[in-house]
Amino acid sequence: MGILLLLTTMSPRTATAAPDPQVSADAHALQAAVSDLVRVYQFRDRDRICCYDVSVTQCYALETLAEHGPLRQGGLAERLFLDKSTTSRVVSALLKKGYVEQTADPADGRAVRLQVTRKGRALYTKITAELVAQQEQLLGDLSPELRAAVVTVIKRLAQAADARFRAGVSVGPGCCTGTSC
Fold first, then answer.
1. In terms of Cα–Cα distance, which of 43, 74, 69, 66 is closest to 56?
2. How far apart are CA 57 and CA 142, in angstroms?
3. 10-37 per-position pLDDT tens digit
4. Which residue has the higher pLDDT, 181 or 144?
5. What is the mean pLDDT of residues 123-147?
6. Which positions ≥6 away from 114 have C-beta within 8 Å?
7. pTM of the full predicted structure?
8. To bridge 120 with a disulfide, which of 25, 37, 99, 109 should be the other Cys (CB 3.0-4.6 Å)?
9. Crossing angle for the helix pair 21-49 and 56-68, nearest 10 degrees?
10. At residue 124, does pLDDT exceed 50?
11. Residue ranges of the domains in the chain?
12. In degrees rounded to 5, what are phi and psi of residue 88?
């Protein structure tokens, strides 16, 4: 029931609101939980995805093109939060492997769009099916209400973080401006 209450009360705080010690404590707990979750999933992704002839980043690019494509390379870079040179290397590898193809952009004949090939879609479908099977095992012991709430909370957190990042707002209290980042 606590997660359902959280869903109904999640709203952006205003800049003028006084700091709430409970929000700070919850933010620390969320940071620890997300960090643990991301770490586990990064290892899982490397373990599961890399055995399919693609890197994790190449798989993310394939997923993005399968779900949101066709896209220009700049659009793909933006969605993946990668710089253009990294995206270019990722795309080059996917083109060589036959998972992605370039086509003329109908809106601008000088530009090209990237789209998933049948071979790429088959690979994406295979990888996704394996990852979903793992999620089914994780969710199996949870009630239907809790499963739905977990998915909703994770989606909302991801959307909020994504919106702040794309708007150029630091997701955290500080912003990396040094060369050590």
1. 43
2. 31
3. 455 545 566 788 888 988 898 898 888 8
4. 144
5. 93
6. 65, 69, 70, 71, 72, 73, 76, 91, 100, 101, 102
7. 0.73
8. 99
9. 100
10. yes
11. 44-137
12. -60, -45
